[in-house]
Amino acid sequence: MQKLNVIKIGGNVLDNPAQLEQFLTDFASVPGPKVLVHGGGKIASELSKQLGIEPNMVNGRRITDADTLRVVTMVYGGLLNKNLVAQLQARGCNSLGLTGADANVIPAHKRPVKDIDYGFVGDVESPEQVNVTFLASLAEQCIVPVFAALTHDGKGNMLNTNADTIASTLAVALSGHFEVSLVYSFEKKGVLLDVEDETSVIHHLQPPYYAELKEQGAIFAGMLPKLDNAFAALEQGVKAVIIGDAAEIQIIAGGGKAGTRITL
Predict the structure, then answer these.
(1) Could you give the domains of the chain?
(2) Where along the sequence does the record put site: Transition state stabilizer (predicted)?
(3) Distance in angstroms (rounded) separating the CA atoms of residues 259 and 6
């Protein structure tokens, strides 16, 4: 099978012009088929405030009312997505900006109201519903999809969807056609035993060691959902998941010794 990298860029790198410039240069030079996934929460929050719409967050998750949905659609699907595509084109990386609504690539449904009404937040249906035929055709044409963190409900509504979830969903869906590595690139060197110590990288993580570390409370709580999703993706056919420094994306995507490599 041909190798393919699904790479999600973290928000702190997206918000840092110098780091983003270097990341895009390195990303463009990663060989073979690849997919880029991005969010843009900080920029969306800044624009919301400028428009007199106060961001509403609960447990770190954005409540997406109708006005906020307009803002995130403009920022994620427009401002950020098209600027990323333009910058990749300037680097010789032929790209196509997409949301989950385009070509019906990622169907989703509005999150049901339980304790909290998140508004127009989307939960992805399943990897089986992803339009893999379309994505495979882009790979054949050497076109790189650049996905904003937006999906749709099939009823005419856009939905704000977690970028990590979109990345893992695409990785699982594509694993039937490619040997897929899912890469979460951000500002840290990898999964750290001590979040304040960049030298404490866990270079290889498998289920038994992960269970041991969780029991000890040794992993930063904010990393646990990402790791749980990583193991779930592996169980559904993804070859490897790597969490690491965006500045080392060439090494990571090339299978080199950088970041935290997660396997079964």
Answers:
(1) 3-262 (3.40.1160.10)
(2) 8, 226
(3) 15
Contact present, 227 and 168 (Cβ < 8 Å): no
Match 């995507």 to its residue by tokens: 253
Annotated binding site for substrate: 40-41, 62, 160
Q: What is the 8-class DSSP label of residue 201?
A: B
**Backbone φ, ψ for residue 231 (5° rounding):** -65, -35
Give the annotated binding-site residues.
40-41, 62, 160
Angle, CA 95 vertex, CA 45 and CA 68 arms, to 5°: 20
- How many whole angstroms separate alpha carbon 163 and alpha carbon 231? 17
Record the pTM: 0.93
Asked whether the beta carbons of 121 and 160 are under 8 A apart, the reply is yes
Tell me: the pLDDT tens digits for 221-237? 778 878 888 899 999 99
